[in-house]
Amino acid sequence: MQRETKAQRDERVNRILALLDEEYGTDYRCYLNHETPWQLLIAVIMSAQCTDARVNIVTADLFKKYDTLEKFANADLKELEKDIHSTGFYHMKAKNIIACCKSLVENFGGEVPRTLEELTSLAGVGRKTANVIRGNIYNEPSIVVDTHVKRISRKLGLTKEEDPEKIEYDLMKVLPKEHWILWNIQIITLGRSICIARSPKCGECFLRENCPGAEKRK
Questions:
Q1: Looking at residue 218, what is its pLDDT?
Q2: Cβ-count burial of 169 within 10 angstroms (0-12 exposed, 13-18 middle, 19+ buried)?
Q3: Separation CA 182–CA 17 (nearest Å)
C-alpha cells in the first residue's frame, strides 16, 4: 500500500468507523458482568491474562460471598486466593484487590474515582483498567488498549507503536472522540470473531478493503 496522505487516512478511518457501526451497532456494552462500579473494578483487575468468560464464572459466586466493598477490603488473603484461583496470577490479584478496596473505603468514601490520576493510584490499576472504568462507568471518552486493540489497530495502519500507552495516544489523534469507547467494544468483537490472532479470516472481513494488513492475505 502506498503511503497515505493525512486526508486519505482520515477518509479511510471514517469508512472503517462507518462499517464498524453498521456491523456491530453503537451500543456501549461491557463484557464483564457487574452491578456496581467497584464490582467492575474488581472484575477488570481479575481479567488480566484471563478471559472475560472465566472472570464472569468466578464473579458469579464471588460477588455473592463478598457482597460489599468492606468485605473485600477485610478479606483473608489466602481465602481470596482460593476464591479467584482459576483466573491465574491469583496471589498478586488477591493482594491488589484487597489493597484497592481498602483504599476505596479509606480514601474515597467507598466510591470509585473517575480521574485517571486517582484511579491509577489504586493497587492493580493501570491505564488500561482506569480507562475501562472511565468509559463504562462514567462515559468519559477513553481508549482501552488491550491485545485486540493493539494488534488490529496496527494491522489497520493506525499506529506502528508496540507500547499500549503510545498506541492510545496515536489512536486519540486519528479517531474522533465520540468513537473512543466504541473502538474498544467493536474491535474486541472483530478480534474474537473475524480478525483472530492465529488465523484471521481476511476473506470474510468487512474491513478488508480498508485494511493494509489484509493485502498480505489476498
A1: 43
A2: middle
A3: 9
CB 195 within 8 A of CB 4: no
The reply, when asked if residue 211 is annotated as ligand binding, is: yes
Task: Give the span between the Cα atoms of 174 and 10, in whole angstroms.
Answer: 7
Identity (one letter) of the amino acid at 104? Answer: L
Determine how many CB atoms are found less than 10 A away from the CB of residue 59: 23
Neighbours of 64 (CB within 10 A): 8
The reply to whether 128 and 59 lie within a common domain is: yes
Q: Decide if 20 is inside a domain.
A: yes
Is 30 annotated as ligand-binding?
no
Tell whether 94 and 182 lie within a shared domain: no
Does the annotation flag 100 for ligand binding? no
At 38, which amino acid appears? W
Q: What is the pLDDT of residues 114-163, one digit of tens each?
A: 999 999 999 999 999 999 999 999 999 999 999 999 999 999 999 999 99
Coil, helix or strand at residue 160: coil
Q: Are residues 158 and 119 in the same domain?
A: no
DSSP assignment string, 148-201: HHHHHHHHTTS----SHHHHHHHHHHHS-GGGHHHHHHHHHHHHHHTS-SSS--
Q: Which residues are catalytic?
A: 128, 146
